[in-house]
Structures are given as C-alpha cells and as structure tokens.
Amino acid sequence: APAAVAVVRAVAWLLLWVAAELACKSSAALAAAHTDAGIKASCSEIILRQEILKDGFHRDLLIKVKFGESIEDLQTCRLLIKQYIPAGLFVDPYELASLRERNITEAVMVSENFNIEAPNYLSKESEVLIYARQDSQCIDCFQAFLPVHYRYHRPHSKDGETFIVVSNPDLLMYCDQEFPILKCWAQSKVAAPCTLKNKDICQWNNMKYKSVYKNVTLQVPVGLTIHTTLVCSVTLLITILCSTLILVAVFKYGHFPL
Predict the structure, then answer these.
(1) Residue 62 is assigned to a structural domain of this protein
(2) Pathway, per Swiss-Prot/TrEMBL (predicted)?
C-alpha cells in the first residue's frame, strides 16, 4: 500500500509539473502573439509611386517612396531600389557615372555585357541599383531619379506604335540597428553593396509595399513596313545628293598641293 501511494504521488507531481510547463509555454506564446498583433496593428503600408517625366525618346523615371510611420527612428536606415529595365529601354552607364560625379543621383548598372546601341529585339532585361535619398520636403519620404532611353523597335505592318511595360522594383532597406517596425515590412534578406563607395556587402531587407500603379506603360512610336521602300529610296537620294555637294565644294574650294 505505501508503495502504491508513493507511485500515485509521483504521477501526480509529474502531471502537475507538465501542466505548469505547458501553462508557461502557452503564456509566452500568447504574450508573443499579443506583441506581434500590437506591432501589426500599428503597422501602416509603404506606398511606392513611379512616374515618367519628359517627352520623346529620352525620359526620366522618378520613384517616390512614402512610409506610413514616421522615420525619425529610422535615420540610420538606407533605402535601395532594384529597378528592372525592360528590353525596350536602356540606361546609359556613362551617363550614370556623370550623374554620380555631379551628385545628382546614386545609381549603378548591375547587368554585364550591356550594349546601349542594340535594338529592342537584340536586347534583354537589365538591372539598376538606385540608392534613394530622403525627400527634403517630406520627413517620411524617399525618392530616386533615373534617366531612361527608348531603344529602336522593329517596324510594324499595321500599328505605328508599341508599348513598354516598366515593372515595379524591389525595395530594399538596411538599418544599422533593428527596429520592431521593420517586422511589418521585411520579407526576406537580399545581399547587395552597402554603398556605391565601397565593395562591402550588406544583408538588405526585401520590403513589401503597395504601389500606386500596378505597372508603368510607355507608348513608343515605330515605323510601318509599308513605308520601307519610300524611306530607303528617299534616304539613298539624300545621301547621294549630300555626297555630291560635298565633292563639288571640295574640288571648287579645296587646295591640293601639286
């Protein structure tokens, strides 16, 4: 009988210990859930807006990012935009170098073997990294500027225009310290250069955001195949005429040593 009583007591203490441990874990999980719920409740969306400025074959892509929360606590954070350039557009790396020297924009090409002279049908999508700057007129806003140019397209048989779709970019953020608010937006980690001035690699947070526009669509005028004969004929005649005038001027006004 005493042995049975001892076994019962041991089993009872074991059950009480397991119950207490489960209660502690449940309380911790509930507290964590309440914390996450509190953070998510205070979260607001990041709003991204893409705009195309200027007319013609040479445009400017302006990207604006607005944080719903005040970024006074995020002054140690940097914002990096990974922009995908479709085959119908190109970014001039030499122009980017000039803009960086003049401190107008901080952007660099990622794609290699890039040909700015190639037409649309011989090109492929490229990537550009743009280090956004804080907007002086908006405390919780960033903006980035990128010049883009149209490529030549194949002529069409009927329609004298084509369309280029500029997809929304990847939005990356890196902070020197962790902030609870980052849990609202961070999705995954992406390796990218910390700055343009050094080759150090940082682990950036890939941020989720809401875009004002799903995509930006550009309308590009193209030639018509039915005009091929006319255009080639007129071009050839003008070339022959200009060459003849140049030769006449050379022989008439040129001085040739005997």
Answers:
(1) yes
(2) Glycolipid biosynthesis; glycosylphosphatidylinositol-anchor biosynthesis
- By C-alpha distance, which of 79, 222, 62 is closest to 152? 222
pLDDT tens digit sequence for 197-241: 877 899 999 999 999 888 899 988 888 888 888 889 999 999 999
Could you say which DSSP state residue 203 is in?
E
Q: Is residue 71 included in any domain, yes or no?
A: yes
Residue 127 has pLDDT above 80, yes or no: yes
**36 and 79 co-located in one domain:** no
Supply 233's token pair: 């004929």
Q: What is the CA radius of gyration of the chain?
A: 31
**Same domain (yes/no): 38, 52:** no
The residue that leads in pLDDT, 34 or 80, is 80
Paired tokens of 13: 């203490």
* Residues 206 and 137 grouped into a single domain: yes
Structural contact between residues 171 and 210, judged by C-beta atoms closer than 8 angstroms: no
* Cβ count within 10 A of residue 126: 20
pLDDT digits (tens, 9 = 90+) for 28-73: 444 444 444 444 445 778 899 999 999 889 999 999 999 876 556 6
Q: What is the pLDDT of residue 238?
A: 96
Helix (H) or strand (E) holding 211: strand 210-211
Tally Cβ neighbours within 10 Å of residue 13: 10
Cα of first residue to Cα of last residue in the chain, in angstroms, is 137
User: Does residue 34 sit in the same domain as residue 79?
Assistant: no
The SS3 assignment for 128 reads: strand
DSSP string, 42-94: H----EEEEEEESSTTEEEEEEEEE-SS-GGGGTTEEEEEEEEEPTTEE--HH
Q: 203: domain CATH number? A: 2.60.40
